[in-house]
Write a structure and sequence with these properties.
Two copies of one chain form a homodimer. Chain A is an alpha+beta fold. Chain A folds into three domains: 75 residues, 3-Layer(aba) Sandwich (MutS, DNA mismatch repair protein, domain I); 213 residues, 3-Layer(aba) Sandwich (Trna Endonuclease, Chain: A, domain 1), CATH 3.40.1350.10; 82 residues, tRNA intron endonuclease, N-terminal domain (MutS, DNA mismatch repair protein, domain I, 3-Layer(aba) Sandwich). In chain A, strands 6, 7, 13, 14, 15, 17, 18, 21, 23, 24 and 25 form an eleven-stranded mixed beta sheet that branches. A five-stranded mixed beta sheet of chain A has the order 3-4-2-1-5. In chain A, strands 10-11-9-8-12 form a five-stranded mixed beta sheet, with helices on one face. In chain A, strand 8 and strand 9 form a beta hairpin. The interface between A and B is large, with 70 and 70 residues.
Chain lengths: 390, 390
């Protein structure tokens, strides 16, 4: 006999499991919540009820005994991200794993260790040549080749000669981030002021200053960020000590890329996911940068507590702590930098890693795991985002 | 002895090659333009002059005999996309290939054949069940499983059951494009009007109607566009006759993705290139859609005539027609849909394929070739964009 439950519309939509066999079946599979602290009746969240109807052929009725369909139940609860939440819930359960409502969270669970990066102190060089800034290209050129090749070889600023062929051609070409950095930290003089460079760059891309802040923060910790254009991101990243050529004369490969998401920016999930996909495709670690001061989140933004596996066993609320916390999103949703930062902050407060579950227009779900990074002395928050298949 | 030339500032900045040996050397390599129809003196474009200085160690002087550096020459000509043009010019020449100025174009050259796609007439089905639209998810659900599986199996609308596991779970889930298409062409009735769906979708993404127009155009020609989320684009595309499962029970793989670029939209080149990169990474053909009426371009937007190879030989202006026409762009530049459409239109009028050369912040150049697609009876213009290494 299949599981049965009732859809009540009053005083607000809720779902009740009352018959003993259904209560036991539902509870055994970690669905439902006790009513009044007793397991005589259970309430189901809409996701739980729809899952049991969709996948386990449960039957739902109204109090007067009429059958309630998927759309009757779902329609009664429709609201923000309703289906995105449902399909993300369903996908996690379909993997044989447990999902529980956020209000069961206790925490901090201490299951969110951060990744430590090898920062180093860095003293920027003083530039002993004048540069020419090209206003529409947002780049500068130093045509003093002695000074140019020194800045390139010893500090890896700009590109001397030709990309991957330093000895073909000459002159040092610096992008807007490098130019502004050297103007501020290396007494680099140009045909325009640093202020003017900022203005011109801001006209081109409104997020220029946030990108610069991220560039500067990594540079001052000894890292070398270069353009990430080939990898679809704002920067690719080399660890402290990197030089444009290795001793063997081979090109050095970066293993990290940085994508900057300003707090004030809004972005379609699909566009954001695209950046992660490129990085994944070229086997680089994707680093998310959210510059600016962190704030304390006001209301709960997270969707579900997730239980995962330990060895060969699945973790359950009976014996284990939750493993992750899920933020469910849909492909065509906008997300703000601030909202994402707050979600990560909430996960951190619970001591759990955040899993972003993105439900596409075909209801397929993709998961991204967010891990915190620790860089001594850095000013902002950074996270590794990893595409995972749970 | 190296090539020598002069930078003149008056009446406007220009570069002159006057000594016989330099004139001959420059002309032999297909640089320079005759002055007054005679090869006694040549003028050089700034790109040509800088290339000769940068790579061939040419010397430039002012009329009073003072040496002019790279920045002296470049600074005299600085303007829109100055360095992007120069580095794109340089990269093409560095490959041993010839670049010539646009004003030498004669055309039409008849070297831009279009790719023909197999369109078919398509009659949309009539939907015999009511759907529930979920306003924040922009999706609808049909919970009548008989009608749902018919629409899925015979027409591949939506997703029945679970993605890649149709028999797990039930109910048909349709995205906003499919929902609106069936409301307009298949009498699909929902809890909201088609008008309301448009409004809700437009709030979420301002380019919704353009995306829908593209979806509708391909659907009515018999193609099946589905979400391209996994491939970082708006749609992935199946050719006429495609079904959700092949006879062998295997999943069908798409080989094309569609990215829609509205004429009124502006986009950073880096973001646009990212979409092409993902498609390339998963070995799909990237189709650019520019919906809306085509217009005739007012001013020339193109940068250079390009000569390429024929068999093992390079093509030259002495014996051959140009092969392509180049639009040079830089990573951090904004491009508009209209501007791109006009550039393609100009290339078409010349009878040449367009090459987009994108110069990144490190002066490395990436090339994309634009090929026109012909789809009988379709309303809009479509192009295959292919990453090429000339």
């Amino acid at each position: 006999m299949s599981v049965r439950f009732e859809l009540h519309e009053k005083p607000h939509p809720h779902i009740l499991v009352t018959d003993l066999i259904s209560v036991q079946a539902v509870d055994r599979s970690f669905f439902g919540t006790e009513v009044n602290g007793k397991k005589i009746h259970l309430t189901l969240s809409p996701e739980e009820a729809l899952y049991l109807m969709d996948v386990r052929k449960a039957e739902c009725e109204t109090p007067d005994g009429k059958p309630a369909s998927f759309n009757d139940v779902a329609g009664a609860f429709d609201g923000p991200k309703f289906l995105a939440r449902y399909f993300s819930f369903r996908d996690w359960r379909d993997r044989g794993l447990i999902v529980r409502p956020m209000d069961e969270a206790e925490g901090p669970y201490g299951r969110s260790p951060s990744e430590k990066y090898p920062a180093a102190d860095y003293k920027p060089p003083t530039v002993a040549a004048k540069g020419q800034f090209f206003y529409d290209d947002l780049m500068s050129v130093i045509d003093d080749n002695e000074e140019g090749s020194r800045l390139y070889e010893q500090h890896w600023f700009g590109q001397f000669g030709t990309y991957k062929a330093k000895k073909h051609g000459q002159f040092l070409k610096l992008d807007a981030y490098e130019t502004l950095f050297l103007a501020r930290h290396g007494k680099y003089k140009l045909n325009v002021s640093a202020k003017k460079i900022e203005e011109l760059a801001l006209e081109r891309r409104p997020d220029f200053l946030e990108l610069y802040q991220v560039y500067e923060d990594w540079r001052l910790r000894g890292f070398v960020p270069k353009t990430g254009f080939k990898f679809g991101t704002h920067f690719r990243l080399y660890f402290p000590g990197a030089k444009p050529t290795m001793e063997s004369g081979e090109w050095m490969h970066s293993r990290h890329v940085i994508h900057c998401f300003p707090r004030s920016a809004k972005m379609l999930i699909s566009e954001w996911a695209r950046a992660i996909r490129v990085a994944h495709g070229v086997k680089k670690t994707f680093i998310l940068a959210i510059p600016g001061a962190s704030v304390h989140p006001k209301k709960n933004l997270l969707d579900f507590l997730l239980y995962h596996r330990k060895g060969g066993d699945i973790e359950t609320p009976r014996h284990d702590k939750p493993t992750y916390v899920m933020l469910a999103l849909s492909e065509e949703e906008q997300i703000g930098g601030q909202e994402l930062a707050e979600s990560i902050e909430q996960a951190k407060a619970l001591g759990l890693d955040l899993i972003l579950a993105i439900c596409d227009r075909e209801t397929a779900v993709t998961y991204y795991r967010v891990k915190r990074i620790e860089i001594p002395k850095s000013k902002y928050e950074y996270y590794e985002i990893e595409w995972v298949q749970p």
